What does this fold into?
Amino acid sequence: MRTSTLCLAVALAAIPTHALAQAPKVWTPQELFVRNIGTREQQDRQFPPHKVIGNIYYVGTETLASFLITTPQGHILVNSMYERNWPVIRKSIEQLGLKTADIKIILGSHAHADHMEADALIKDATGAQVMAMAEDVPALQAMRPGGKAHPIDKVLRDGDQVTLGGTTLVAHLTPGHTKGCTTWTMKAQEGGRAYDVVIIGSMGVNPGTRLVNNPTNPTIAEEYRQGFKVMHALPCEVPLGSHPAMYNMTDKHAKLAAGGPNPFVDPQGCKAEIDLVERTFTSVLEEQRKTTSPQ
Ligand SMILES: [Zn+2]
It folds into this structure.
């Protein structure tokens, strides 16, 4: 027993470290899910509101991202989150010295309650217009917290632009996670130059998702592939996402205090995150193909 343990130790020590470094970890759907949503407490606990870059501010919780984009004509809110999170968004906006009444447009990452449940509540509170990707409209219409109808003032198509006060966001259809999952891009101005910002909608495969022989969505695997194709092609210098773990917000925020270059400028992080979730997608697809008999 002792000898074989020793042999294993010697064998492991003999593996060159660069060989280990070349095999990146493949996250399971469960691991990715937990990384993204955290605990119930983390979903609800305010994260210190902060300026990300240019006119983009973080007003979300520890694991659910909400961004406020300020313009001279009012604000755009990306992700209303759960209704129970509204007090945190409101408090964050006030702590930044801004006004919730100035929210004019509400956008979202995709039709899941942790990102878009509070659309009706915040529209009622502010009078803002809710805009959503066409392919997500049926799922949003089914999202009726407290029986309230889901407001949709404008239906968007892939490539549509949303402009307010000189800032333009572009809606990119990156399907798979939901039919109308939307990745938002915009330019942020800082230090005399413009940066390409990408707010990742989500390319995650949730635990239990059928990619093969899915009766409710037979084309789901192709939708994910299309989503990844779009994601890979987007110019990205500042990755953001519907969950802060998608761009290591906590680590980057900790670096803000030190001064120096803006830690949210991270082109490598953008690519790394897309590759990470794509490895999960590919491994789930291969596994399900192996274990699913052809129909
Ligand atoms: Zn989701």
